[in-house]
Amino acid sequence: MCSGCSDGKVVVRGMVTVDGQPIDEGSISLEPADAQGPTTGGLIKAGKYELTGNAAVVPGKKIVRIVGLRQTGKMIPAGPPAPKGTLIPEMIQCVPGHYNDRSLLQVDVTPGKANKHDFQLDSKTTPPKTTFSGRLQMRLRALANEF
Questions:
Q1: Where are the domains of the chain?
Q2: What is the mean pLDDT of residues 108-113?
């Protein structure tokens, strides 16, 4: 349980790697798979995340969305408002879309205790294709034409 939480929320923590390497920095969010209840999330630093306090999680099935950045090894200009000539590490998105905006990741958050959920992501894996029935495809096309 979340220390001081009487609302049933629990702490969720874990590690996030892409191709076996921890994400340098990023974010993780957990949203209810049934779209009922709050979404919560937090930062990932050196591959680790911990959702506690206000970010503690209501138990249940969750869709997980992960955004992650990794340093390329290059230094690039910081740009304004930093002083001219200031360099910062170049960061690139290292998590494919099927783990964030089109996420298929899901976890079950168990009530009554802290949960540990590690995510070993593979940047080379492609998600399964979503197929729609003929009737649904026709409706989606009709809706698209309305806009």
A1: 12-146
A2: 96
Distance of CA 41 to the CA centre of its chain: 8
Q: How many residues does the chain have?
A: 147
Q: Does the pLDDT at position 128 exceed 60?
A: no
**Residue 91 in tokens:** 């960061």
pLDDT in the model for residue 7:
83
The answer to pTM > 0.85 is: no
Chain-centroid distance, C-alpha 68: 8
Cβ burial of 95 (10 Å; 0-12, 13-18, 19+) is buried
Residue 102 has what pLDDT?
A: 87
What are the pLDDT digits (tens) for 50-91? Answer: 999 999 999 999 999 999 998 899 999 998 999 999 999 998
How many Å apart are CA 5 and CA 144, to the nearest integer? 45
Distance CA 71, CA 40 (A): 26
Residue type, 67: V
Per the CB < 8 A criterion, the answer to whether 51 and 35 are in contact is no
The CATH number assigned to the domain with range 12-146 reads: 2.60.40
CB contact set of 79 (below 8 Å; sequence gap of 6+): none
Q: What are phi and psi of 99, to 5 degrees?
A: -110, -5
